[in-house]
Amino acid sequence: MFHLPAKPRMSLLKVSNVTLKFGGVKAIDNASFELREGEILAMIGPNGAGKTSLLNCISGFYKPQEGQIFFRNEEITRKKPHIIARKGIARTFQNVELYGGMTTLDVIMSGRHIHYKCNPIFSGLYFIKGRDEEIKHREKVEEIIDFLDLQQYRRKVVSTLPYGIQKRIELGRALALEPQLLLLDEPMGGLSFEEKEDMAVYVLEINEDLGISILLIEHDMGFVMDISDRIVVLDRGRVIASGTPDEVKDDPRVIQAYVGEG
Amino acid sequence: MILQSLINGITMGGIYALIALGFVLIYKASKVLNFAQGELVMAGAFICLALFDSGLPLWASVIIAVILSAFVGFIIEKAVLKPLIGEPILSVIMVTLGLAYMIRGLVLAIWGPDIRAFPQIFPPGSFEVFGVIIPYVYLGGLVLSLVAIAVFILFFTRTTIGIAMRAVADDQSAAMSLGISVEKIFAISWAISAMVAAIGGILVGNIYGGINVNFAFIGLKVFAVVILGGLDSIPGAIVGGIIIGVAEALGGTYLEPVVGGGFKDVFPLLLMLVIMAVKPYGLFGTERIERV
């Protein structure tokens, strides 16, 4: 697969004093955190804490009114989603967003869009150059299919497949971008216990074997504590705690946010 | 007699299907009903005619007209529709109606209302198969429209841009997250739509032998095709095109002498209404089930 060389853990993503308002309501309130290269950073918090909104700010779907977001020391705060994706940030969605009428192969192939060098007309006419490039991309897609154990579903239309498999296909499509940072919005949402275990393995392998940094939102605390290097806790749009899983789980502010006042 | 009507109907149906594909492409990508599709058909035919009248060989006139039409489609999207992103869809649809009248007005101003002879791409004459007389213009029109449809489908299913277009049509957010520029895809959709409209216009111009500003009313038939087949369905556009073409031919041959003049233009619309009563989303359209 596409291994990245080992590097010292530099800052990959920096969110600095980001505020996002919808009308008068602050969805995110002066949030700041940092994600380092090669790290799995989990973002947790109660429902409505602003986790997905923050992910949408990072991926360009929302434009924050205040603050800055840096990716590899370049500001991406108000860039369009497709520009941010081209810079090396891929994402999955809370509710699976796949192209229902396409096969698994085509869906993952759509993730190769940014890597096509050949003129689309040549590619369409299937000239030698276009065909060679198509073969190269198809090989990458086949690697991803093998990596995520999707071989038996490669020619199946995705809308006909079980939800757990669709989640994996969406992950495969994001990997097809060959990103440096992967944003996962509730990768465990709606999965059975066995599927959650499989997903945990895939997330770890993506991080360790492919060298891709991961920022994930998740409600499954067991999963978060097991696989995260660090955790950021959001409550009502504010970052109330951050640190290692052990540091965070004993933090009284985190307990307060989840349990509330007795 | 019936075979003759069927062949004529299938030929016209193939061309309607081709033009309808352009309509469906825009609808799939941006949910915009392009009421100017008939005018783009007319504009393509008039551009070809103007190029031919300027002294260019016919083959060059056709190729340049198709390329220029694509450019016109691209400019329309960039100048007229891009500023309307985020506006209510009804506003955008009304703008396409305004665009239709604007194109029609331009054609009237430049070429006037009279019917103008259209240059013939295919040789005159016909040949006979099992007692059915097939004019070369019909055979050529059918073959070219089928080739264009095949190229369109291959483009849509095999090329990077084609897959990106399908991605945008299915889910814009997901497409953007993959580095696909939705704005660029919208512009390409309009360019391709205008391109196939021009090809359709040139083929119909050949069959009719002449064109004038009323040529744009072909858009009504194409609208019937896409409603019949399903607004968001490519197979629907093809099947719907053939059904409308055949219905028009059979209506003209068998019903018009009984009912009266002009019934061949009405019959496909009546057929569409009957089918819509049974299948409200069209033959292949996506059914929308909403919680209320």
Automatic annotation (TrEMBL), chain A:
SMART domains: AAA. Pfam families: ABC_tran (PF00005), BCA_ABC_TP_C (PF12399). One of its GO terms (molecular function) is ATP hydrolysis activity. Residues 13-261 form the ABC transporter domain. PROSITE patterns: ABC_TRANSPORTER_2 (PS50893). It comes from the Archaea. Keywords: Amino-acid transport, ATP-binding, Hydrolase, Nucleotide-binding, Transport. The keyword Chaperone does not apply. GO terms for cellular component: plasma membrane. One of its GO terms (biological process) is amino acid transport. PANTHER family: ABC TRANSPORTER ATP-BINDING PROTEIN, CONSERVED COMPONENT OF ABC TRANSPORTER FOR NATURAL AMINO ACIDS-RELATED. Probable component of a branched-chain amino-acid transport system. Belongs to the ABC transporter superfamily. This is Probable branched-chain amino acid transport ATP-binding protein LivG. The lineage of its organism: Archaea, Methanobacteriati, Methanobacteriota, Archaeoglobi, Archaeoglobales.
UniProtKB/TrEMBL annotation, chain B:
InterPro entries: ABC_transp_permease (IPR001851), BCAA_transport_permease (IPR052157). This is ABC-type transporter, integral membrane subunit. Keywords: Amino-acid transport, Cell membrane, Membrane, Transmembrane, Transmembrane helix, Transport. One of its GO terms (biological process) is amino acid transport. The keyword Membrane applies. The keyword Methyltransferase does not apply. One of its GO terms (cellular component) is plasma membrane. It is found in: Cell membrane. PANTHER family: ABC TRANSPORTER PERMEASE PROTEIN (PTHR11795:SF451), BRANCHED-CHAIN AMINO ACID TRANSPORT SYSTEM PERMEASE PROTEIN LIVH (PTHR11795). The chain crosses the membrane at residues 6-26, 58-76, 88-112, 132-156, 185-205, 211-231, 238-255, 267-284. One of its GO terms (molecular function) is transmembrane transporter activity.
